């Protein structure tokens, strides 16, 4: 079993002030040994989370790792089979109603009714949260920039594009000013412009309103861009947690990626002996060389490879990304094209 | 190292709008309102049953009026109208729309709100009762044009519509049970398997006195026989209406109890978080 890597730093400010009703000292989300089993299989296996009020927390993991199951438990759609979870100060197992009043959720697929108009959907959503008509209208006006649907708001949702649906779904999740927002892959399927728009709104919600945001994403740049801290889940367990900057530092300051023809493992002993190389890993036809100083080490690495039987196709130097962290900890690249639900 | 926060001042604004429990009545009216708004946009769901009902109403009168003319004090047009109304309202429900909600995950969005779970189901059913009541109107209008008169006057008409709507709700319970249990639109359509024995192994076309053999026996066990009796007692009158009305209400109540038990159990299973 992998050790959990925990890295904390002061890398990015977050905003715990809040117009939240959660006491300032409390965590917006806290789980203790959270477990969810399906027919004896542990989809989530003892997850411990402490997410302070006002933080944007990025939750990453390969498909089937337990991301969505964790989110479904935290937003009360699923009951834990072990451990406990508090969201906005209330237990999701014993006080789901109070949790629901305080959270907003945009699930992986835009959960909308194609036979309603955008306005009708938001009105209904507001009514179910106990808002008056005046309050709903006020909230729709406040969310207008995010929704950005113009006249389409009065057309049937079935006629919307994928991006419009995602934005409306997000607006529906925010209509009641939730204290904690769960965004399950909020920008999947959005064009780059809409994605940046959503990022900007997520930042605004966090900075201006102090809303705690629990964000799962398959776009590592999104987590890098938005999250104060990132947690990586694999096989139902958190395997790493920390700020994006420090997680990246933890896998080495620079990475040399070598794509080769032939058996890359044969080069490992040679490369490990090169001065300055901290570690070598093989992923498919790639050699991933971790080093403290890429610029100083890349030439000796190239020379060392020239002395092997391998044909070098590509040799690139770059600073680590969250994908490297992901690869290091889970042994796989994240696959943005695959959006399958990980819930059994 | 530890996480260091750098708080910024929140913007000055009015009191923040916050969620609060809406209350059962508001939950119900919100869900029912949405279901009713969807009806005109889904008009193909309600037009065919009414068309079929009107069609059979006219055809049955043309076919069987003479055949039954030998029965003393018998008005076939009045007799056939109750059958036509049941053809029009039986099986009309928002259960297929609920399946689409489940498939599109909109059902999950509803579950994420503080709405009472029972309100989701009861709200749809309240809309169904309203739709069923409206669907009886064109059939009643045709009946009036063809000379049907209500022994109980306007109150009889209201009772007739109410009884037909309650039956529609009782039958819809089966469709909701299947919808919530399976989440499968094809399975919901299978409620037609219940439609045929309920609507045809009974006094739909001729009075009980004209039925014989096994059909007469089966009709005796079919609750629709008593429902039709109750509906017809409001039209043709003659003698006490209370006995057939009581039997009709009991028949609807028995079917309703079974179907509601099934659909609320299915709802509990669907929203169960375990």
List keywords for this structure.
heterodimer; A: Rossmann fold; Alpha-Beta Plaits; seven-stranded mixed sheet; four-stranded antiparallel sheet; disordered C terminus; B: about 270 residues; mainly alpha; about 70% helix; about 0% strand; elongated; disordered N terminus
Task: Please describe what this structure looks like.
- The complex is a heterodimer of chains A (344) and B (274).
- Chain A is of the alpha/beta class and 344 residues long.
- Chain A has 2 domains: 5-247, P-loop containing nucleotide triphosphate hydrolases (Rossmann fold); 251-330, 2-Layer Sandwich (Alpha-Beta Plaits), CATH 3.30.70.
- Helix content of chain A is 33%, strand content 28%.
- Chain A has helices spanning 67-74, 96-102, 118-128, 133-142, 144-147, 162-174, 192-209, 220-226, 244-250, 268-272, 294-306, 322-330, and strands spanning 5-7, 27-38, 41-52, 56-60, 82-87, 90-91, 103-106, 180-184, 212-216, 229-234, 237-242, 254-261, 277-283, 286-291, 311-318.
- A 7-stranded mixed beta sheet of chain A has the order 1-11-10-4-9-8-7, sandwiched between helices. Chain A has a 4-stranded antiparallel beta sheet with strand order 3-2-5-6, with helices on one face.
- In chain A, helix 3 (118-128) crosses helix 4 (133-142).
- Chain B has 12 helices and no strands.
- Chain B has helices at 24-41, 47-64, 76-89, 95-104, 106-112, 117-145, 153-182, 185-189, 192-200, 213-221, 223-236, 242-271.
- Chain B is elongated, with a radius of gyration of 23 Å.
- The two termini of chain B are 39 Å apart.
- The model of chain B is unreliable at 1-13 (pLDDT under 50).
Strand-helix topology:
The complex is a heterodimer of chains A (344) and B (274).
Chain A: E1 5-7, E2 27-38, E3 41-52, E4 56-60, H1 67-74, E5 82-87, E6 90-91, H2 96-102, E7 103-106, H3 118-128, H4 133-142, H5 144-147, H6 162-174, E8 180-184, H7 192-209, E9 212-216, H8 220-226, E10 229-234, E11 237-242, H9 244-250, E12 254-261, H10 268-272, E13 277-283, E14 286-291, H11 294-306, E15 311-318, H12 322-330
Parallel strand pairs in A: 1-11, 4-9, 4-10, 7-8, 8-9
Antiparallel strand pairs in A: 2-3, 2-5, 5-6, 10-11, 12-14, 12-15, 13-14
Helix pairs in contact in A: 3-4
Chain B: H1 24-41, H2 47-64, H3 76-89, H4 95-104, H5 106-112, H6 117-145, H7 153-182, H8 185-189, H9 192-200, H10 213-221, H11 223-236, H12 242-271
Helix pairs in contact in B: 1-6, 2-3, 2-6, 3-6, 3-11, 4-7, 6-7, 7-11, 7-12, 11-12
């Amino acid at each position: 079993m992998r050790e959990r890597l925990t890295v904390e730093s002061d890398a990015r400010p977050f905003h715990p002030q809040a117009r939240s009703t959660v006491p300032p000292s409390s965590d917006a989300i806290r789980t203790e040994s959270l477990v969810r089993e399906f027919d004896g299989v542990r989809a989530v296996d003892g997850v411990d989370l402490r997410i302070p009020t006002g933080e944007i927390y990025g939750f990453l993991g390969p498909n089937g790792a337990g991301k969505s199951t964790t989110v479904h438990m935290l937003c009360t759609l699923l009951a834990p089979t072990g451990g406990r979870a508090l969201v906005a100060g209330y237990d999701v197992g014993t006080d789901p109603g109070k949790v629901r009043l305080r959270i907003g959720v945009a699930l992986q697929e835009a959960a909308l009714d194609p036979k309603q108009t955008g306005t009708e959907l938001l009105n209904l959503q507001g009514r179910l949260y106990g808002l008056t008509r005046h309050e709903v209208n006020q909230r729709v006006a406040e969310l207008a920039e995010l929704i950005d649907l113009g006249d389409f708001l009065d057309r049937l949702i079935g006629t919307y594009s994928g991006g419009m649906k995602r934005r409306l779904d997000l607006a529906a999740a925010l209509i009641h000013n939730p204290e904690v927002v769960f965004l399950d892959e909020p920008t999947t399927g959005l064009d780059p412009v809409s994605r940046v728009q959503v990022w900007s709104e997520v930042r605004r919600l966090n900075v201006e309103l102090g809303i705690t945001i629990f964000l799962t994403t398959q776009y590592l740049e999104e987590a890098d861009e938005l999250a104060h801290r990132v947690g990586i889940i694999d096989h139902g367990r958190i395997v790493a947690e920390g700020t994006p900057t420090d997680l990246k530092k933890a896998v080495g300051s620079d990475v040399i990626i070598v794509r080769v023809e032939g058996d890359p493992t044969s080069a490992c002993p040679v490369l490990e002996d090169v001065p300055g190389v901290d570690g070598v890993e093989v992923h498919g036809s790639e050699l991933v060389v971790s080093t403290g100083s890429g610029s100083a080490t890349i030439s000796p690495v190239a020379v060392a490879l020239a002395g092997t039987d391998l044909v070098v196709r590509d040799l690139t130097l770059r600073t680590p990304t969250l994908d490297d962290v992901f690869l290091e900890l889970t042994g796989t690249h994240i696959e943005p094209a695959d959006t399958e639900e990980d819930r059994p | 190292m530890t996480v260091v926060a750098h708080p910024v001042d929140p913007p000055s604004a009015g009191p923040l709008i916050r969620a609060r429990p809406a209350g059962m009545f508001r939950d119900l009216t919100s869900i029912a309102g949405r279901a009713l708004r969807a009806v005109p946009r889904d008009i193909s769901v309600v037009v065919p049953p009414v068309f079929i009902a009107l069609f059979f109403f006219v055809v049955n009168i043309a076919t069987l009026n003479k055949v039954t003319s030998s029965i003393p004090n018998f008005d076939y047009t009045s007799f056939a109208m109750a059958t036509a109304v049941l053809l029009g309202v039986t099986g009309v429900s928002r259960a297929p729309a609920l399946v689409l909600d489940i498939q599109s995950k909109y059902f999950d969005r509803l579950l994420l709100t503080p709405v009472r779970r029972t309100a989701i189901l009861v709200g749809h059913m309240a809309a169904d009762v309203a739709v069923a009541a409206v669907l009886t109107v064109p059939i009643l209008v045709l009946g009036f044009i063809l000379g049907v008169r209500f022994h109980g006057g306007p109150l009889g008409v209201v009772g007739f519509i109410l009884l037909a709507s309650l039956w529609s709700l009782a039958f819809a319970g089966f469709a909701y049970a299947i919808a919530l249990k399976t989440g499968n639109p094809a399975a919901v359509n299978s409620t037609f398997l219940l439609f045929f024995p309920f609507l045809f192994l009974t006094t739909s076309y001729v009075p009980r006195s004209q039925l014989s053999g096994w059909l007469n026996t089966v009709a005796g066990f079919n609750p629709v026989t008593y429902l039709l009796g109750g509906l017809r007692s409001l039209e043709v009158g003659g003698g006490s209406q209370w006995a057939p009305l009581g039997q009709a209400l009991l028949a609807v109540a028995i079917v309703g109890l079974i179907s509601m038990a099934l659909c609320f159990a299915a709802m509990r299973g669907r929203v169960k978080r375990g």
